[in-house]
Design a protein that fits this description.
single chain; mainly alpha; 72% helix; 0% strand; globular
Length: 179
């Protein structure tokens, strides 16, 4: 079922990217792809990740709604992909996070910004080593909390943050990185 739906949504998404741009269709497809990344079993996640990632990288993100869903998807990738597989995605994800956390924050862009901050937090908590660079990245994340526009994402990232703190993650439980 997932393969059939994935094929249908990816065809719509590619059609939108090739000039028949329909922001609403692109956003629905991006939502569907993030749901696959979030909710699928590991075998489906690993099978579809490369093609979903490629579709995400093809977006120009002129739509803040599409950008929000793509960056949320990148956060899911950071959380779920193995540490061995992460490097092939890291540069693109880092660039998109930087883009998101650099936008001027207002009511319209706030959810995209919040999802960028949450994705940054996932990079810190799941893929960053306890080094000076890691501590700098952690501080960059903590300085942007709390999330104010996407309350659901705020709840999720705070839950992850508390879990990592209780696990003793040194980038979370280190007093020197707290603002």
């Amino acid at each position: 079922v997932v393969d059939k739906l994935y094929s249908h949504f990816s065809n719509i998404f590619v059609k939108c990217l090739k000039g028949n741009r329909n922001e609403q269709e692109m956003n629905y497809c991006a939502c569907f792809f993030t749901d696959i990344l979030s909710l699928s079993h590991d075998n489906i996640f690993n099978k579809l990740l490369p093609s979903i990632f490629e579709l995400f990288t093809m977006t120009d993100n002129k739509s803040l709604d599409v950008l929000q869903n793509v960056i949320f998807g990148y956060g899911v990738i950071v959380q779920r992909v193995s540490i061995e597989e992460y490097p092939k995605y890291a540069s693109v994800i880092s660039d998109k996070i930087t883009q998101c956390i650099s936008i001027k924050v207002n009511e319209e862009s706030g959810s995209a910004y919040d999802n960028g901050v949450a994705a940054l937090g996932k990079v810190v908590m799941f893929k960053t080593e306890n080094t000076n660079d890691g501590l700098t990245l952690a501080l960059k994340f903590f300085e942007r909390l709390p999330l104010k526009y996407d309350l659901e994402e705020n709840k999720d990232i705070m839950t992850i943050l508390c879990t990592e703190f209780l696990k003793g993650n040194p980038l979370v439980a280190n007093n020197s990185v707290l603002p």
